[in-house]
Amino acid sequence: MLKKLVLTGAAGRLGSYLREPLSKMCEELVSTDIAEGVGNLYANERFVQADISKFDEVESLMEGADMVIHFGAIVDEVPFEDIWGPNFVGSYNVWEAGYRHGVRRIVYASSIHAVGMHPSRDNIGVDAPHRPDTFYGLAKCFTEDLGRMYWEKRQMESVHLRILSAAQVTGARALGTWLSYDDLIQLVTRAIETPVVEWSVIYGVSNNDRAPVDNTKARHLGYKPKDNAEVFAEEILKDAQPMDPTDPGHSRLGGPFASVELGQSGLATMDIVDDKKIT
């Protein structure tokens, strides 16, 4: 069992599903967020309010930590000036503070938006070149490269989870991109438990018949998703309107993020159900 894990973004929707399983993997789970709290705490969990864009607040979390599960960020497209602190500086702060305190590995919530302008039909693998669709996606590219540099220069491991759609299936695109919460937990668990990861990238997607990406070169992580969005296909498609192949929002991996103007919300065009786990 690990001695200490740190979870950033613990008050977020995905963080709410990760807290309990992470608490079972370590003696102490430190959950942190810019929000004031996360609800009731698990037996070995403590909460620390912190702003990841401030180095001193991040550094104070890292003492004695084995690994960091870094999910803290602005999770939508916003103007560059707004995303710079949490998503760019915040990532640097986590890696640098972690390095100074001997953190062995960081598991990072990257995103499909790091490669969001690739055509969906190309079935890209984890070694596809970056093609960000937004400033949000650009921040994911930055952090993936940051993690690679810290591995190659400082031997600090990291796993970058390019999450596709970790939300309820409410539209046709999600039949390919869905990541169930159970598969999310398995994905993070594999990223923590795999003995050697060096610098790794893996797509966060369930075992969907229509999955638009290929995880073959990430098999060393042992991720074997169980769920398949095809069980929702009949219901989703019966009233679905034909997609426009000339619309990047329909033809590119980034979906709506591929068609919005830079700095404009991508989530505003999506039907995301807020089913955060309540503790």
Task: Describe the overall structure.
The chain is of the alpha/beta class. It has a seven-stranded parallel beta sheet, sandwiched between helices. It has a two-stranded parallel sheet with strand order 6-9. It contains eight helices and nine strands. Helix 1 crosses helix 6 (181-193). Strand 1 (2-8), helix 1 (13-23) and strand 2 form a beta-alpha-beta unit. The chain has helices spanning 13-23, 55-62, 80-100, 135-154, 174-177, 181-193, 233-237, 248-251, and strands at residues 2-8, 26-33, 45-49, 67-70, 105-111, 124-125, 157-163, 199-204, 213-214. It has a single domain (2-269), classed as 3-Layer(aba) Sandwich (Rossmann fold). The model has no long low-confidence stretch (mean pLDDT 97).
Task: Spell out the key features of this protein.
279 residues; alpha/beta; Rossmann fold; two-stranded parallel ribbon; 8 helices; 31% helix; 17% strand; globular; NAD; oxidoreductase activity; NAD(P)-bd_dom_sf
Secondary structure layout plus pairing:
Layout: E1 2-8, H1 13-23, E2 26-33, E3 45-49, H2 55-62, E4 67-70, H3 80-100, E5 105-111, E6 124-125, H4 135-154, E7 157-163, H5 174-177, H6 181-193, E8 199-204, E9 213-214, H7 233-237, H8 248-251
